[in-house]
Every structure is written in structure tokens, then in C-alpha cells.
Amino acid sequence: MKLSPAGKLIRLRVLGVCISLALSAVTKVVLAAEEIEFNTDVLDINDRKNIDLSQFSRGGYIMPGVYSMVVNANKDTLPEQQIPFYAPPDDPNGSRACVSRALVEQLGFKEGIVKDLTWWHQGECLDERDLKGMEVRGDLSTATLYLNIPQAYLEYTADNWDPPSRWEDGLPGLLLDYNTNVQAQRRLHTGVNSYNLSGNGVAGANLGSWRLRANWQANVNSEYSSNKPLDWTRYYAYRAIAALRSKLTIGDNYLDSGIFDSFQFRGVSLASDDTMLPPNLRGYAPEVVGVAKTNAKVIVSQQGRILYETQVAAGPFHIQDINDAVNGELEVRIEELDGSVQVFNLNTASIPYLTRPGSVRFKLATGKTSDWRQRSSGVLFNNGEFSWGVSNGWSLYGGVVQSKDYNAASLGIGRDLMILGALSFDATQSWAHLPELDRTLSGGSYRLSYSKSFDEYDSQVTFAGYRFSQQDFMSMSEYLDARNSDSRASNNKEMYTITFNKQFRELASTLYFNYDHQTYWNRPTSNRYNLTLSSQFDIGSIRNVNLSLSAYRSRYNDTNDDGVYLSLSLPWGRAANVSYNTTVNRGDTTHRVSYYNRPDDHNNYQLSLGNSRGGGSLSGYYNHEGDLTQMSANINYQQGQYSALGINTQGGITLTPNGGALHRTGIAGGTRMLIDTYGVPNVPVRGYGSTSNTNAWGKAVIGDVNSYYRNQASIDLNKLGDNAEARQSVVQATLTEGAIGYRRFEIIAGEKAMAVITLADGSVPPFGATVMNTRSQETGIVNDGGSIYLSGIKAGESMAVYWDGGAQCEIRMPTPLPAEMLMNTLLLPCQSASTAKIRAKAEQVSK
């Protein structure tokens, strides 16, 4: 919050009075009641009898009533809720916070502790005095209830992770997320214009703990007449089953398996959800790595359904935000503007199947296989998998897939090798009957997997695996292809895969390597590797020079696609750089000089001049992260060949009974948080590295929210306007998958000014009286002679003045307000009003 010099001076004067009170007061403390007696002789005021310090006479005293408070439990922030304060039976003049049964359920007490809890106030409130070491304290200045609970009473927690008792299902609501691409191109040698419109996204609704979702994808191309503009590719509903740490899904789905290959089906599944586990026990999401020769469109799909689509600038790219529920083989397609296309397959891999000792993880599914257009192929099946933590370090796992003409069984063992990493081995046997070919095939497949993080060497083998399959072994997806086409399109033989990264801290360098090798019994070998080495160093007075080298090879359908990318970047000002890079592939070499700048947190752009065998080229790339959407645009010109324009937008809309907003998105259809600032617009709200301003109704949606993870949202105080104050700047929430979380920031918005409050008889309110607005927000404390520094002033708005335990009168702000507020002193007569009338008005506005 920023203050003018006058405001700072006023705050210093008020602070000085408070310090004087604290240092000069002669106190008489009665330990049972924490009563404090003030020596008012040290106060420089005219009328020492006209003082109301009742609210300060007891340390932490809060008048009995019901208050909206954020709960801070061991520094973890829980949702805002109504907290009653009652006078305890043994102290009629005291006040004590009521920790309700509903709040206790959110605190995560162990089951054995919950059985022995005791209660007071007709069994409504927890008696924390029976839990040795637990402390409860309310603070009206921050609207927070502080709970200090010994960890021995609570369930297991980890950094940024909460137990299920604190998970929230969020608000009911509707959402629509989208990712659209527009590309227009003109072939210079023919004069032919073409365009392509494509997109995908998720529409959905949240009802309690249920998430209803529908995935869509669209494509319109001017060069093809047989376009189907819109396809709904998946309809499904899911919810969390917290007691089983699992996810129940009904409708169109992919088999989520750590053992068998993935395939599409329509039915029901119940599976242990790794995202519900602490972060150090979760799996890895797939990562797509490649190099684009030009500004290109990258499409990641699985069995015809588009999972991810975006436009990237020329050079290396890493796509890391694909949903970690994706398993099996992915197809990656890079469509270059010069008409060339790179296609390669990526085998997503998971870490070895390890389970905590004594725990069991499971996956169950039943239904009928289908394709991405929801056409059923008519195969009813059942699937079951398990992983059992036999002992400390050993896990046993296995599973079956059962249908009329296809069956498979697998059994494996995993071992935590401690400092040597984690290793697993499994064997799978399949039996497939093909009526059309009048054949029954039976074969085995064997897999060895390994992962290890070498912290002492700053390196990590994210995944390494080997798999061998006999010629007559068939996965379910291979069986379905053979059943539908009367032939085997794919017959896997051997697969090697490894992902490795290494940091050289002394050299400020990083090495990344990915290798994927697949052989087949009936088709050519497929290979894909990518090696990237980047380094940062200084050249004389030039600091932070970056050098990057990427090399890749992709062999697909007996064709090699090799490439090398070299880039040298030098800083140019505060957030800009100039770079030279060269790309070598398929017999062509491109040289490019670029200028990159990031003028602020929301915008960046790049301009490039290039030359290749085809002639000179010009390209530009611009990216904007707005409050409503994320947008990128690119323009390209290749001498004598083509000119092109591309635009990509990503965003969504979320609507709830508490309001809604247009916003940027993270994972389409995923978890998000609605932020409410009491109707105050243009409040900067920060999520994970991105900032959005609240809309005209004081709402913003943060889309980069992780499921089952303690997420934070905060007010960027450095960008908060002068006429707004944040009573709290950080909130937290742990949300179930797909939830629409809700948090409110108490913002006092309005002008600030010095004022003098007078009563009807010419006297003034007592020193220490408080002023509250219609939202029960404290806007000032009365000083000597009725003077007060007021915040949150709005033309025509009323505020109540409290002393002697209640609202005594009401002041109304002038209309219009003076032009120079801090240069004027407002004279505010306080008209008598009943406490009930003022409270009723405050409650009405609050509702």
C-alpha cells in the first residue's frame, strides 16, 4: 500500500500514541482475566474522562459476537468462516473463540484424538484446554483466528500438502476453456491464399464433489471441402473418493494403467490417484521436446484425440503442461510454415511402481472399448490392478485385462534401492483370439524400469526403461486394431527409453538428454533422441551470455529427420537480448539474428532476420498474458515462397453463484480459484508467477492452480492503488481436482482523509472509539478531540461509531467529496442511531 507524505505523517502520529500507551501504561494484570489498567495521566488529551479503552483493557479481548475470520492453523490458512465469540461460563465478562465442530473437521486431527475431544457451550465448541499445548487467539486487526496445535495431534502433512480433511470441493459453477489457432498463408509463387482455423477445449459444470466435463475439438481448412467444424470427443464425469485416495470416473475415458497400454473406452473406473499423495510420492507428467525450424504449430494427440495444440517460435521448445494422467504412446506433429511436417511418437513413461509399506494402490475399470468419436467397437472388458507395499523397500504389483477374446495378466516386483534409485521388473502374458483371421495368439512381454536422482551430482535419471515383446504378444490396443482391420498394423518388439538431465553448477551449465528407441516385428525401426546443452558465462564486461546447442534425430517410417540448433544470446538492456542462431536440417542451413524484449510481466516479443538457401526471411513473434486471455501472434515472410500470419489464444470463462470472470487457463477443465475483493476492481492478484487484475465486479479467476496441493494467492501490494488497503494479502487453499475454489480478500477501498467527529450536543466521541463501515471493516480509531484518520471514504456512504460495547451513532460522508482529500479536514456530525438499525444495515449490505 502506498501512502502520500501526509498519510505517512498521520500514521506515524498514531503509531507514536500507541507506542506511548504501551511504554507508559502502568498495568495491573490479573492473570486469570488478563485485565490491564491504564494510567491515563500520560495521555495528552483535554478530557481524560472521555476515554473508552475497554477494547484494550484485556489482552486480545474481542466482544462476544460472530465475526468473519480467516483461520490460521499452524501458519496454514483455512477458508474464511463465521467464528462466534462467547463469554465462558466461568468468566461472564470475558470472551472466548468458539472452534466449531465443522472447523475441527478441517484441522486434520488423528482419529484417536478426535474420539477424546471435549466440548463447551452446549457441545458446540471445542475445549482446547484439554489438548495440552493448543492455543486459540483471535485478532480483529487482521480478521484472523490463530490456532497453534502440536503436530503430534495432527495427521501427516508435508510442505505445500494437506491431509484430506482440508481438501475443498469448491463452489458449484460452469466453465468453458478454449485454445484456438488461426493461420493464414499466401503462396507467393502461385498467389494462392489459404487459411486454417482449429481449436480444442473443455466445457463443464461442477456440482458438489462431481465434475461434469465434455471435450471438444474443431478444424476448418480452406484447402479441404470435407471439414467437420466441431467434434465432441469425450463426455465424462468424475469425483474424488478421499477415503480411498482414489478417483471415480464415469463415461468416456482412457485406461489409466501403470502396467498395460492405454486404450479408449466408455464405462466406469475407480483408481488410486497419485496426485492425492504428498508431492514426493507423485508420478511424472510427460514432457514433449523438439525443435521448430520456423514459427510452427505443435499438435500432441493420442489415438486421434488432440491433447495439446499450440504455436511456438522457431527454435527448441519444451511442453511440460500436459496432464499427468496421460499414459501410453503419443503422436507429436510439428507443422512448419514452409509446408514441411515433423512427426514422431513419444512413449510416456512412469516411475517404477512403488508403494509405501502396508499400503495398497489399485485401479479398477469396466466398460466397452471405443474410439475418439465415441464409436463403440463392441468389446466388453474388465480391468484390475494393484500395488502392495510388502515391506520397507519392496513392492509387489500386477493386474489383469479380461474380455471375451482378449485376456492379459501381469505380475511384477519393485525395489527401492535407496541411494541407488528405484528399480522394477514385470512380465505380462497375453492371449488374443482373432475370429476374422481364425487365429489365437499368445505371447509375453517383459519390462525393466529404473529411476534415480543423483542429488550430490546435480543430475537425475527421470526414467530409464527396456521392454521386449514376443512376436505373438498383443496389447489391447493392438488387438483392437487387428480386430477392426483384419491385420496387425503395429507389432512392437523392443523399446529403450531414457530421460536424463545434469547440472554443472561451477560452469553454470545444464545438460538434457532424451532417447526413445522402438523396434517392431513388422515395420521399420523408430528412433528419437534430443540432446541439449546450455551454458551461461561472462565475456569481459558482458555479463550473462547464454550459449545453447540442441541436436536431434527422428527416424519415422524409415525416414530420418536430423537437425542441429545453435544459439548465442547477449543481454541488451534490462529485459532484452540479441541473439544469433543457426539451424541445420534436411540439407538446408538457416542463419538468424533476433532481438527479444520483455517490457513488462505481461508482454514479450521477438523480431528476427534470417537467410537460408531459399532466400531471406523476416519473422516476428509476440506474446501477451492478459487478464482475460493469453494471446500470441506471429508473422512470417520467406523470400519468393510465402507470407503467413498466425494467432493463438488460450483462456476460459468461469461462472459461479458468487460471481465469475474471463481468465487465462492452466490445464483445460482443471482446478481454478475465484478471488473476490468485495466488489473492488483493478486489484492485482498473483497466482503462481502470473498477476491478474480483478474485473469491474471485483472478481478474478486464477487458472494455474494444482489439485491436492496447498495453493497460494496474494495481493501484489506494490501495485495496489493508493485508494485501497488490503487487510490480508495472502490466502491459501487445497482443492480437489477440477474444483472452483473461492477466497475473499478484505479490501478497504476509498479516499483517505483527516476528519473531526462531533456529537449532537457538541461533544466528541471518546478517545479510542472505533469507526466501521457497512461491511464491518474498521476504518479508523478516534483520537483526542474527536479527530480521526479515516480510510475507505466513499461519497454518501455511512459509517458507525462504536464505544461502550456497541454502535452509538452514525456519520455520513459528504457528496461530492472534496477535490483534495488529504489537504482538507472533514467535519462529520454523528447522528444518533440504534445499534440494531446499524447492524441490520451492515448485515443487509454484507449479504
Which key phrases capture this entry?
55 strands; 6% helix; 847 residues; disordered N terminus; globular; 5 helices; Immunoglobulin-like; Ubiquitin-like (UB roll); mainly beta
What can you see in these coordinates?
Among the domains are: 44 residues, no CATH class; 99 residues, Roll (Ubiquitin-like (UB roll)), CATH 3.10.20; 97 residues, Immunoglobulin-like. It is globular and about 100 Å long. A hairpin with a 2-residue loop joins β16 and β17. It has a 24-stranded antiparallel β-barrel. Strands 8, 40, 41, 42, 43, 44 and 46 form a seven-stranded mixed beta sheet that branches. The chain has 847 residues and is mainly beta. It is built from five helices and 55 strands. It is 6% helix and 55% strand. InterPro entries: Fimb_usher, Fimbrial_membr_usher_CS, FimD_plug_dom, PapC-like_C, PapC-like_C_sf, PapC_N, PapC_N_sf. Belongs to the fimbrial export usher family. Its main location: membrane.
